[in-house]
């Protein structure tokens, strides 16, 4: 019969910490030649611990920690460094979508909080339009009162490439803030998600109340599905950080934060190129009436569909599946 998990961790942790320290020194280039044998011995012991954990403690943080530790040790001992381009391609083909699927519960919770904020903002304004004075910024209320979209003149002020660049910067800022605020025990991320949801819901409800729902839909149709998906994914990453701080499980809080933090950063980094792409759509396609509403809606549905099809299907099976399991 297997020992209780805390006893197993207490007994084996010194070897894991020693292996982690040697790996850190190997990456820093300070590992001495005579320590390579110790590294190999500790790796083999950790691999045996991983097999034990996979049998008796599957799905625990200890199992995930050992899986990651052994993967790092194997790469350090047996595999030559991968080319940067190959590593980048492997990340987007396998690591990013697999990491998202493995942490789908956090992304789902993030989506729930964001949707809750949208519903709260919309219900308040629809039931009591004067609530918009509290929830919708004054300059937006002025545009809506004049039956104008605040985005109509955006291309007359700046060229599309400058607009796209500004949007990409703004979207990246929102994504990083949503993720990084998870360090406040997750409460920062919860606030950002609900607050952004309330803002979006209240603006949408005011537009509908003033007969401008169609214009708002026309503006967000092309870029909205992917952009809002990325906000939700960044929120999921922030919640992962918060969960590691509140409930580190069997690991010390620092190790749990490092483990969860690495996976959360993968989610944020994976979203970066999609943020740039959607900023181009938002800068060139969404404003104005050069493209018809149905073209924008079709583009938005296609981009959103392909984005989630990629996240849900990429990296399944293949040779690298075992390394990530």
UniProtKB/TrEMBL annotation:
InterPro entries listed in its UniProt record: SpoIIM-like (IPR002798)
Source superkingdom: Bacteria
UniProt keyword Nuclease, yes or no: no
Keywords carried by this UniProt record: Membrane, Transmembrane, Transmembrane helix
Membrane-crossing segments per the record: 105-127, 172-194, 228-246, 267-285, 291-311
One Pfam short name: SpoIIM
PANTHER family: SLR1478 PROTEIN
The protein's name in its UniProt record: Membrane protein SpoIIM required for sporulation
């Amino acid at each position: 019969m297997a020992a209780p998990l805390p006893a197993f961790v207490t007994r084996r942790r010194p070897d894991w910490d020693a292996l982690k320290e040697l790996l850190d020194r190997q990456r820093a280039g300070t590992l001495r030649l005579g320590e390579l044998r110790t590294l190999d011995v500790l790796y083999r012991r950790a691999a045996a611990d991983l097999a034990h954990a996979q049998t008796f403690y599957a799905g625990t943080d200890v199992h995930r920690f050992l899986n990651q530790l052994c993967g790092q040790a194997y790469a350090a001992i047996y595999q030559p460094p991968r080319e940067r381009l190959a590593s980048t391609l492997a990340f987007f083909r396998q690591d990013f979508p697999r990491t998202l699927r493995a942490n789908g519960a956090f992304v789902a919770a993030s989506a729930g909080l964001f949707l809750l904020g949208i519903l709260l903002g919309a219900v308040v304004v629809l039931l009591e339009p004067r609530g918009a004075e509290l929830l919708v910024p004054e300059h937006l209320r002025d545009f809506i009162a004049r039956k104008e979209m605040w985005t109509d003149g955006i291309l007359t002020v700046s060229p599309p490439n400058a607009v796209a660049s500004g949007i990409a910067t703004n979207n990246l800022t929102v994504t990083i803030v949503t993720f990084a605020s998870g360090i406040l025990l997750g409460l920062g991320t919860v606030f950002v998600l609900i607050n952004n949801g309330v803002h979006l819901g209240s603006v949408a409800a005011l537009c509908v109340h003033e007969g401008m729902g169609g214009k708002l839909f026309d503006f967000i149709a092309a870029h909205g599905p992917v952009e809002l998906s990325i906000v939700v994914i960044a929120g999921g990453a922030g919640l992962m950080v918060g969960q590691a701080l509140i409930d580190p499980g069997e690991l010390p809080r620092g190790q749990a934060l490092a483990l969860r933090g690495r996976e959360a950063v993968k989610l944020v980094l994976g979203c970066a190129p999609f943020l740039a792409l959607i900023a181009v759509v938002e800068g060139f396609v969404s404003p104005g009436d050069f493209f018809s509403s149905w073209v924008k809606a079709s583009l938005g549905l296609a981009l959103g569909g392909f984005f989630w099809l990629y996240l849900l299907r990429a990296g399944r099976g293949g040779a690298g599946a075992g390394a990530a399991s």
